[in-house]
Specification:
By secondary structure, the chain is mainly α. It has one domain (3-448). It contains 18 helices and no strands. Helix 3 crosses helix 7 (131-143). The longest helix has 38 residues, at 273-310. The chain starts with a helix and ends with a helix.
């Protein structure tokens, strides 16, 4: 077995997991910091309405990210297992086809969304107050950011498939720090408003992508960028898509959920819907920021599982699953406790608008009730994806949002009013946890028998 395979297949599991997860976590936290700081800058400098305008179109960004994840995660699952089995040429071909698929998808998305943008904003229920903020922010994000997001996702997941967590961390940190600096310049000095927030994001993404391309083109990776060097292999493309569908469904579900929630908020006549949308946007930014280490753990977990499963090291796969469950659950519990203890102070970072603070607190107390259980569902789906089992991965990616959360968010408001929207979250977290643990236990026992 080559040195690279020995590294992934022989080091102690806990040290290997932490060695991959910690650098990615730091990188993702630094990267996620720009979303957090964006929200602070927008709310404090431009007001709650601007925050509402940016938040209400966030589902469109999530949808683009979902399609990018479809390609990149499906590719990463194949590449990790190919490298574990020392099939380097197969891994190289998969990377090539994934990049071509990302370029084509980004072109179609850009044309489709820009040509229908007015209708999309109307369908999302964007109010007259929020419309100029939503439009001015979204247009440059779609025109330029779509291709940046799609290609970056493939390159980043290709790096983590090779175990290059430190480089991945550095690239994400570069984008985040540059974004924060440009936010300040464009908002406070150039007075560009929400368009400045979009430009800051795009420039930072482009800088990070150029650095990743330079790293690949300079020959410092095991796999190389050889665009259009391989003939189209529809079986390989099908595998990429099938293995990426679980993550697509998961992220697309978040996009649908946020859209449905924002639209539902606008249907209550006895509340300030624009204020509640802004409050929900703040809570959403908080959630995204604190789950980033969980995502990093899932990335490390999936990479190690795929590699060791491809190498036939099933006992190590079981050990990786145990370590990951403990690490993810412990982190989520700690963060939930910290948020509940310091909730008003955290929300106060975004705004001193007392009505907005009170609305955000009301949402957070309910949404975070069973939050420590929510990330186990994503880890379960990643486990089956890493093993190449697309059907259970698809089911587990769907259960929390599609089977429980979306139906509950439609039904519960009929009984509990707007509070029913928030009660749907702990209900989905608890029920999906039970379902996922049943699937994981059965697969864990099957690995023991091999």
């Amino acid at each position: 077995m080559p040195k690279k395979a020995e590294y992934m297949g022989t080091q102690p599991i806990t040290r290997l997991f932490l060695g991959l997860a910690l650098p990615i976590s730091i990188g993702m936290l630094v990267n996620g910091l720009y979303n957090f700081v964006d929200a602070i800058f927008v709310t404090r400098a431009l007001g709650p309405a601007a925050m509402g305008g940016v938040s209400i179109v966030f589902p469109i960004q999530m949808f683009i990210f979902a399609l990018a994840s479809l390609i990149s995660s499906g590719m990463a699952s194949l590449v990790a297992r190919n490298l574990g089995a020392n099939q380097v040429d197969s891994a190289q071909k998969t990377a090539d086809l994934a990049l071509r698929l990302a370029l084509l998808t980004s072109l179609v998305l850009t044309i489709g969304i820009v040509s229908c943008m007015q209708d999309i904003l109307k369908l999302m229920g964007v109010s007259q107050l929020l419309w100029p903020y939503a439009h001015d922010y979204l247009l440059p994000i779609i025109l330029i950011g779509t291709i940046l997001s799609m290609v970056s996702a493939v390159l980043y997941d290709l790096l983590r498939s090779e175990g290059k967590a430190i480089l991945m961390m550095n690239l994400m940190a570069l984008a985040a720090l540059l974004n924060i600096a440009l936010d300040a310049v464009f908002i406070f000095f150039l007075d560009l408003g929400v368009s400045g927030v979009a430009y800051a994001t795009l420039i930072s993404q482009a800088a990070s992508l150029l650095m990743a391309l330079w790293f690949y083109l300079s020959g410092r990776t095991r796999l190389q960028l050889r665009l259009f060097s391989y003939q189209l292999d529809w079986l390989c493309i099908k595998q990429i898509i099938l293995l990426g569908i679980p993550l697509l469904i998961s992220h697309a579900g978040i996009s649908i959920l946020i859209t449905l929630t924002n639209y539902s908020i606008t249907q209550f006549s006895n509340i300030d819907s624009d204020l509640i949308i802004s409050a929900y946007g703040i809570i959403g930014r908080m959630i995204i920021f604190i789950i980033l280490p969980n995502i990093a753990m899932i990335i490390a977990f999936q990479t190690l599982c795929g590699y060791n499963y491809g190498a036939g090291l099933h006992r190590r796969v079981r050990h990786i699953l145990r370590v990951s469950l403990i690490a993810s659950g412990s982190y989520s519990l700690l963060m939930s406790l910290l948020i509940m203890l310091f909730l008003e102070s955290i929300i106060g970072l975004f705004t001193d608008h007392q009505q907005l603070i009170d609305a955000a607190k009301d949402i957070a107390y309910t949404v975070f009730m069973f939050f420590p259980l929510a990330n186990i569902q994503a880890l379960g789906a990643a486990f089956f994806q890493a093993l190449g089992k697309a059907l259970p991965a698809l089911l587990l990616s769907s259960v929390r949002i599609y089977f429980i959360l979306l139906p509950a968010s439609l039904i519960l408001p009929r009984w509990f009013g707007i509070n029913g929207l928030w009660l749907a979250f702990p209900l989905a977290d608890g029920l999906s946890f039970v379902i996922v643990m049943i699937f994981l236990y059965k697969q864990y026992c099957q690995l023991e028998q091999r």
